[in-house]
């Protein structure tokens, strides 16, 4: 049965308005990044009168953006690798084995997502300072401390997501791997992990995006040498002025890795987010 013409036109109008609503901020960012500072500070013009690419060169000189970029890449990449690695082993154990405290473990993992992140800010700060004073290990103000901080948020969600996805993988694959001589670890890496690639990719993208754009903990747990992009963008605001054209240009530049990664992994991401929810 064909849909009525009124429904088709209503859908087109709605999707068009939704597209304009989504792309309008992007257009404002792009147009503002191509204007001189005096044009951006004045009345906004939808069609710029003068265009310049100078802000895209100035962003690297006004603040050490390259250093911030490297810090974010190291922190987000390490947090993603650690989160995915630990979550794979933990989710496999929960999905395939029965042990004492299994239900308590899964409930605890899920319950950690109910607390706002700001509640952990002061406790983590005090823990890092006390560890540094007692052992000399500098967690506060270091990349390692920030990586551990991000694991407290991404790891519980990663474990929970992979538990659901591993449950959807037939157990017959485990039995077939054992018949062929594989142990539990061999079955995990030779059979289960290849079958769970979409779910693992979805978890990795979530962990990376969480660490890449986080501001609150990065602004407290870092110093001038370990500052990340999310905090470093504040450097374009001074006591006298705000370099809005450079802010827009830098925001577009730092968004490119996430957007490119999302486009490349979109197929795996959609599959991974949906397959684990269907039994």
Automatic annotation (TrEMBL):
Tree of life domain: Bacteria
Subcellular location: Cell membrane
Keyword set includes Transmembrane helix: yes
Xref: InterPro entries: BP-dep_ABC_trans_perm, MetI-like, MetI-like_sf
Segments traversing the membrane: 12-30, 68-92, 104-127, 147-166, 187-209, 243-265
Primary localization: membrane
Signal peptide range: none
Membrane association type: Multi-pass membrane protein
Keyword Membrane: yes
Domain spans labelled ABC transmembrane type-1: 69-265
Gene3D superfamilies: MetI-like (1.10.3720.10)
Cross-referenced PROSITE patterns: ABC_TM1
Keywords: Cell membrane, Membrane, Transmembrane, Transmembrane helix, Transport
One Pfam match: BPD_transp_1
Similarity annotation: Belongs to the binding-protein-dependent transport system permease family.
Protein name: ABC transporter permease
Organism: Streptomyces ambofaciens
Lineage: Bacteria, Bacillati, Actinomycetota, Actinomycetes, Kitasatosporales
């Amino acid at each position: 049965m064909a849909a009525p013409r009124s429904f088709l036109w209503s859908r087109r109008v709605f999707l068009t308005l939704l597209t304009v609503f989504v792309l309008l901020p992007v257009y404002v960012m792009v147009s503002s990044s191509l204007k001189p500072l005096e044009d951006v500070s004045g009345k906004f013009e939808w069609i710029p009168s003068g265009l310049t690419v100078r802000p895209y060169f100035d962003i690297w000189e006004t603040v050490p953006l390259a250093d911030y970029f490297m810090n974010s890449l190291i922190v987000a990449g390490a947090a993603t690798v650690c989160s995915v690695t630990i979550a794979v082993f933990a989710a496999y154990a929960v999905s395939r084995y029965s042990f004492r405290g299994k239900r308590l473990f899964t409930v605890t993992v899920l319950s950690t997502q109910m607390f706002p992140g700001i509640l952990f800010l002061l406790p983590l700060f005090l823990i890092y300072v006390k560890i540094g004073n007692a052992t000399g290990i500098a967690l506060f103000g270091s990349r390692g401390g920030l990586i551990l901080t991000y694991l407290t948020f991404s790891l519980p969600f990663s474990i929970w997501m992979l538990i659901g996805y591993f449950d959807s993988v037939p157990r017959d694959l485990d039995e077939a791997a054992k018949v062929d001589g594989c142990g539990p670890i061999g079955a995990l890496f030779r059979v289960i992990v290849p079958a769970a690639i979409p779910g693992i990719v979805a978890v990795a993208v979530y962990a990376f995006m969480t660490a890449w754009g986080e501001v609150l903990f990065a602004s407290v747990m870092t110093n001038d040498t370990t500052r990340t992009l999310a905090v470093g963008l504040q450097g374009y605001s001074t006591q006298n002025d705000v370099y809005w054209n450079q802010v827009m240009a830098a925001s577009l530049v730092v968004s490119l890795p996430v957007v490119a990664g999302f486009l490349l992994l979109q197929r795996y991401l959609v599959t991974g987010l949906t397959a684990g929810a269907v039994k």
